[in-house]
Amino acid sequence: MKGKIHSIDTFSTLDGPGIRTVIFMQGCALRCKYCHNPDTWAVESPDARDYEVKELMEVILKNRPYYEASGGGVTFSGGEPLLQHHFIKEIFKLCRQEKISTAYDSSLYISSQVVLDLIPFTDLVLADIKQINNEKSQLLTGAGNVLNLKNIRILNENKVRIWIRYVILPSWTDAYEDLEKTALFIRDLPQVERVDLLPYHSLGSHKWKLLDLEYQLHEVEPPSSNYLQELAQLFSSLSQRPVYLA
Amino acid sequence: MFTQWQDFEPGRWMCEIDVRDFIQRNYHPYDGDDSFLSGPSARTRSLWDKCQELLRRERSRNGVLEVDADIPITINSHPPGYIDRDLELIVGLQTDSPLKRAINIYGGLRTSVRACRAYGVEPPSSLIDFFEKHRRTHNDGVFTVYTPEMRLARRVGIITGLPDSYGRGRIIADYRRVPLYGINYLIRTKEDDRDSLNKTMSDYSIQLRERISDQIKALQSLKEMAAAYGFDISQPAANTREAIQWLYFAYLGAIKEQNGAAMSLGRVATFLDIYIERDLEKGIINEEAAQELIDQLVIKLRLVRHLRTPEYSELFAGDPNWVTESIGGAGVDGRHLVTKNSYRILHTLQNLGPAPEPNMTILWSKNLPSPFINFCSRLSIKTSSIQYENDDLMRPLYGDDYGIACCVSAMRLGKESQLFGARCNLAKLLLYAINGGIDEMTEDQVGREMPVYEGEYLDFDQVMHRLKIQMDWLAELYVNTMNIIHYMHDRYAPENLQMAMHDSDVHYFMAFGIAGLSVAADSLSAIKYARVKTVRNECGIIRDFVIEGEYPRYGNDDDRVDELVVELVRMFIKYLKKYPAYRNAEHTLSVLTITSNVMYGKHTGTTPDGRKRGEALAPGANPLHGREEKGALAACNSVAKIPYKYARDGISFTFSIVPDSLGKSTAEQVNNLRGLLQGYFTKGGHHMNVNVIHPEVLKEAMEHPEQYPDLTIRVSGYAVHFIKLSREQQEEVIARTFYRRM
User: Taking CB atoms and an 8 Å cut-off, how many pairs form between chains A and B?
Assistant: First the structure.
């Protein structure tokens, strides 16, 4: 079995605990306006490469001493990794055998059957919440959030460890009522261990241009660090979870 | 038995010089955290304020506060010097005034005069006359016998940075012997050694008798130097303060006698902890007092100065002295060697602020206690002033009482020593292989004469064959050149005092080095896996290359090219070992550049990997900037593949990362940095310099150096005040890969 992989980062400390190998899968169904990896959208891309399961496992195993020393492991990201869930499941099974911790970072805009299918092999899910408000989600990502929220609840019910990721995009995701609703949603999910607030940045905008896509957020300023601190505090007190700023 | 030894656990160390035995029987491993540490005392703060004012003045005077061109420095050349007598608990300066630099003529008359003139002073003509007429110096000795081939190799930069015009250094005397035994005991032992050579007068015994006699004289001089400061060091030290003072005098005598490039301290923290524990137990001192003494020792180590020429600074930028202190590690019995004093000496980076000296070197073992590892990681993140070396790799070869000289060179303290030999340029050597030994920059015939490579495209097997021929040529020339240098150094600028703090029968390493490893390997990889077309100038010399296709690059954990790196190192040490070394020394090899990678690059033509003429080489064993495409661990894994057994003088890797990329919280960052180090060393890595800093901060410091006087970063094997680097070197540091996540 083959997976279509956009790129691999052998040293990530931001995608789950410890030092992790992050595999960025090619292909995504969403079209988030702030996406800094639009080059991972298309299912086929000249930059992506097919990996056999065995081949990817070799890459992963090379860094075992670092996982062991730091409590790290493997994280699938993307793109939307779950579009290639069969491949991921194979890798996760082998990681389980090798006692390497497994995680994926997903928007969870995917059939719940896929999520359920992976649960036995998944140690941690970095679950994105794009927008708690369905209509706003539609505008921001091109899709509603019903599946997203449903899948997070499923993960919670199945006792999977969850870290929530939420992008602060001024005037798109930082309205008080949205933040409050999101935080309260999280508060009721005991499996959510922490929340990462990710400030919007425009570093990916050049990629849009390269792909001949129209970047619509030129006017949006990245949030200031004071403002982020404020939001983090608010979020933390409402959700009763530790909040980290990336 | 000496009364000063009361309450110490007895052992063999009482019958003969055996510092290791003393440590093993008496030290207290400490498994706790850093919560016991004290801040700087008021006295230390005042003293350090005064020093900082002096350092500021030194910076404003182009890096040199004052030069004494009149009195050539010896152990007792200058009267006692003080910063502020009332504030100093540990005393002793190289000259009569802090930061005043003296001339050390024995290393080289020409060099000394040139160095003086660079700072606008002139040694008295009577002094120059005396040395010209009556006393040959090391540098003059070397050039008297250098062959034309050696001079040429040096001039074009295939071998450079050789210690033929400056002190070789890299010798670590066992300074701990002075506090533990006192000078008189050391002299008696040396007299016994000399007297045991009374029978047959061979070259060997005559030379050794002469050397030992000079060592005894040096010990006597050291005693006089201490007496001038009001201390009698003929007997062992009786308490902590004396132990630190005796030890510092021993080191001070060494840096007065020698201006070696690297004058390392050894491994003193745990040794001194034994005295501190005894005094704490007796209630003579408390923790504040112990920290104060260590802070004050470190202040002295930060003020070590030698007079250097501008050419020297191009190789070793930022006025480094490599006062390397090796900390931690584990014993052969499995106990770790971390004590409270391991913490105290590191804590000076917080009490006095970050600084390049002493060169803090953590000997990493999987047996180190977890709180200590966390403490070191936290300090690395905060100060970028620490380097790490793999004790689990070195202990089987050097035991558990070795020290690191300079950056990465291990040796048993007091039992082994090194003949330092800078490095040669492998990237250039590869071009010699292609151009039949003709230097691509000067067009001199330097290497072994062969026809210039004939084909249009480079063929891997042919280039390898040619490279082996040139490598053999270089190895022979390099060993012979080193033999001359060290013969003359022994003869005209011997390290009498340092060798007095060694056993009389010392095992020597001859330390060779290579620069340009990554460029040479990437070039071979391009030739093997892509197609490399040659471009010739009007004389037919190949000066440029066109690469068609892709090739694997070193730094991406790709065996196809990483194996070429290993092969280059293996081949070169094999060729070096073919040629006998002076003093029957054991050949070793380092992959270390200091800052010379910039200068070497400047003198190296365009290489088949696509690197342009004049561009910097990568530092140490690092992959070339920007060629690591698979992230930090892939680069670490590539470097870790170089077997230590082929490069026993050390494999230097400098790792730079922006703080956020280590994790979001401090706890995460600490955890991930220790995970990175542990992983790297488990993979067999030897050394890692860790910088946790934003390149933006460095850019800012380039524009406003006055605001960043203490900004410290690690370059290949040592730490340096960033603002003391030349602009070119600063730019090279910034251009390096700083791992970060987009």
Answer: 89
B340-351 helix and B287-302 helix, angle to the nearest 10 degrees: 60
pLDDT digits (tens, 9 = 90+) for B290-346: 999 999 999 999 999 999 998 888 778 889 999 999 999 999 999 999 999 999 999
Question: Minimal CA–CA distance to B609: which of B535, B550, B537?
Answer: B550
- Are B476 and B579 within 8 A, CB to CB? yes
Cβ contacts of A17 on chain B, cutoff 8 Å = 668
- The ipTM (two decimal places) reads 0.90
Average pLDDT, rounded, for chain B: 96
* Active-site choice (B51, B116, B376, B407): B407
- Tokens 């745990």 appear where? B270
Distance CA B477, CA B158 (A): 11
Nearest C-alpha neighbor of B29 from the set B289, B296, B269: B269
Query: How does strand B416-420 pair with strand B531-536?
Result: unpaired
Token duo for residue B126: 């009577």
For residue B310, whether the previous peptide bond is cis, meaning omega lies within 30 degrees of 0, is no
Is B631 an interface residue toward A (CB < 8 Å)?
A: yes
If we measure between CA atoms, which residue out of B681, B678, B675 comes closest to residue B663?
Answer: B675
pLDDT at position A130 over 70: yes
Q: Residue A32 is part of which domain span?
A: 2-245
- In chain B, which among 643-672 make CB contacts under 8 A with chain A? 660-665, 668-669, 671-672
CATH at A128: 3.20.20.70
The string over B308-344, giving b where at least 16 C-beta atoms fall within 10 Å of a residue's C-beta and e elsewhere, is: bbebbbbbbbbbbbbbbbbbbbbbeeeebbbbbbbbb
- The shortest C-alpha distance from A15 to chain B (Å) reads 9
| B118 interfaces chain A, CB cutoff of 8 Å | no
Q: Is B407 a catalytic residue?
A: yes
Write the secondary structure of B221-270 as one string of H (helix), E (strand) and C (coil).
Answer: HHHHHHHHCCCCCCCCCCCHHHHHHHHHHHHHHHHHHCCCCCCCCECCHH
**Total number of domains constituting chain A:** 1
Chain A residue closest to B370 (CA)?
Answer: A69
Residue B425: strand pairing partners: B515
Report d(CA B453, CA B466) in Å as an integer: 9
- Minimum-distance CB partner of B631 among A10, A70, A71: A10
Predicted pLDDT at B741? 63
